[in-house]
């Protein structure tokens, strides 16, 4: 099916990328983009910078780079801003996070030192392990959110930006279940006025961004923009939103291995995942209330991929355990172990072991870049509300009410690329391929 190209506003002028949170992920992202701009690094891990997209028939041999195919903001046109309750500038924060080696941080010292976080909307009730001093004051949650709106406007004017996007790189907040205060926009705004405890800071950033017409992408498992209230606002204001929780290490592997088991109709008896992690994120997740939010995000994946309702003989009642252990010596260099008990022909058991020594923020940084550039593209193309085609980047993808989210990495990748083809009026690729065998 070919569609006519969408009318897409050109990516002219500067794009401001604002991150609530200037910790390990955000500083690794910013330092990486600057390092690439200076020709010191390559954008490894980023689809917007390195991937190609096949167009037309296989025999046509048309496979341009995605960034030459769709109009994306150029890295040279990006400016960075952030909020954080910890007042460290990006240089100090990057040094403390310890993700990047001195040889990569020192040459960027002037640039990184110039990025200072704006005072955050922060409340320790929602992130117990962070002690912040760079915090806004306000009588009500709406006052605080209005201050964020002002920050957004001021940043845009000060840096002469044509457009802005927000990518949440802040901490994981305590678990909040969706309730009636999140059910409609009217209830949400009333709850902001009444300082309702179920309105978390991440929701205020989301509300403020959408009110300012700025796409909001949610890198943490926080409920944030994943509520009917804020989806209603995004629809009304014509703003793209996406979430939630960057799919980086262990869950990324899960969304590769689980579809492979299902594709071959192999059974699963159990999947035990454990991690050691020593960065600030690990410390925040050491608090059971924050861990609960992360756990819910990590657990949802297998059930949706394996569909035990459809395949009870293979997947009914499998055991799924996820642990994160805070272990300071490892810093950002997480180590994850997966033990997967699978079942084969005639019920014979087998095991798969995965030992992933990853660097969390190194995997997350290119995701931040791609989400920023793609959500800006979506905005210029007039797309609004949940951007399901960006599920590729998330552990807990948002989907329309009543719809199962898509977790399988390769279906997500196909969906992403077909959306780009659709936007540019190119034929969708079904992989049927009968035309090659007349
Ligand atoms: N690194 C990964 O692989 C990965 C994967 C998925 C999700 N995430 C999520 O991304 C987020 C960032 O991870 P990180 O490793 O950079 O953590 P980090 O602790 O290094 O940085 C988070 C920063 O957010 C700040 N913060 C907390 N509440 C805030 C608020 N209300 N407003 C503004 N800033 C606030 C903290 O002070 C901290 O500096 C976490 O929620 C993490 O769970 C990371």
Provide the domain count: 2
> Could you give the order of the helices and strands?
EHHHEHHHHEHHEHEHEHHHEEEHEH
Looking at CATH, the homologous superfamily of the largest domain is NAD(P)-binding Rossmann-like Domain
What class would the helix/strand composition place it in? alpha/beta
Bound ligands, named by name, code or SMILES: nicotinamide-adenine-dinucleotide
Largest sheet: 6 strands, parallel
For the biggest β-sheet, the strand order reads: 2-1-3-4-5-10
CATH architectural name of the largest domain: 3-Layer(aba) Sandwich
Radius of gyration: 22 Å
CATH class of the largest domain: Alpha Beta
Question: Can you tell me the residue ranges where pLDDT is under 50 for at least 5 consecutive residues?
Answer: none
**Average pLDDT reading:** 93
């Amino acid at each position: 099916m070919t569609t006519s190209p969408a009318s897409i506003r050109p990516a002219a002028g500067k794009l401001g990328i604002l991150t609530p949170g200037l910790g390990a992920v955000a500083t690794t992202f910013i330092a990486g983009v600057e390092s690439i701009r200076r020709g010191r690094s390559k954008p490894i891990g980023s689809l917007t910078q390195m991937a190609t997209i096949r167009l037309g028939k296989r025999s046509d041999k048309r496979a341009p780079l995605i960034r030459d195919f769709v109009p994306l903001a150029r890295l040279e046109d990006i400016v960075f801003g952030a909020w954080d309750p910890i007042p460290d500038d990006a240089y100090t924060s990057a040094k403390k996070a310890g993700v990047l080696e001195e040889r990569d941080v020192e040459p960027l010292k002037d640039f990184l030192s110039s990025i200072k976080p704006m005072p955050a909307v922060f409340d320790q009730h929602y992130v117990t392990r962070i002690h912040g001093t760079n915090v806004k004051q306000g009588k009500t949650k709406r006052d605080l959110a209005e201050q964020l709106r002002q920050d957004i406007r001021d940043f845009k004017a000060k840096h002469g930006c044509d457009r802005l996007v927000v990518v949440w790189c802040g901490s994981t907040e305590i678990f909040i279940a969706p309730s009636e205060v999140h059910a409609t926009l009217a209830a949400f705004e009333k709850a902001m006025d009444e300082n309702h405890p179920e309105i978390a800071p991440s929701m205020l950033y989301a509300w403020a961004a959408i009110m300012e017409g700025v796409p909001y992408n949610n890198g943490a498992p926080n409920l944030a923009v994943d509520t009917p209230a804020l989806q209603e606002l995004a629809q009304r204001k014509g703003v793209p939103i996406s979430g939630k929780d960057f799919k980086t290490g262990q869950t990324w592997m899960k969304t590769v291995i689980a579809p492979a088991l299902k594709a071959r109709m192999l059974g699963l008896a159990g999947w035990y995942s454990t991690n050691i992690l020593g960065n600030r994120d690990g410390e925040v997740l050491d608090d059971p209330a924050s861990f609960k939010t992360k756990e819910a995000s990590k657990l949802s994946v297998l059930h949706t991929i394996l569909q035990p309702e459809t395949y009870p003989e293979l997947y009914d009642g499998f055991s799924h355990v996820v642990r994160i252990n805070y272990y300071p010596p490892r810093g950002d260099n997480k180590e994850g172990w997966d033990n997967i008990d699978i079942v084969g022909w005639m019920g014979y058991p087998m095991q798969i072991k995965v030992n992933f020594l990853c660097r969390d923020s190194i995997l997350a940084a290119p995701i931040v870049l791609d989400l920023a550039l793609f959500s800006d593209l979506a905005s210029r193309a007039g797309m609004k509300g949940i951007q399901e085609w960006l599920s590729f980047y998330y552990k807990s993808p948002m989907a329309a009410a009543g719809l199962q989210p898509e977790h399988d990495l390769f279906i997500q990748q196909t969906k992403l690329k077909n959306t780009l083809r659709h936007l540019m009026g190119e034929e969708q690729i079904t992989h049927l391929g009968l035309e090659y065998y007349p």
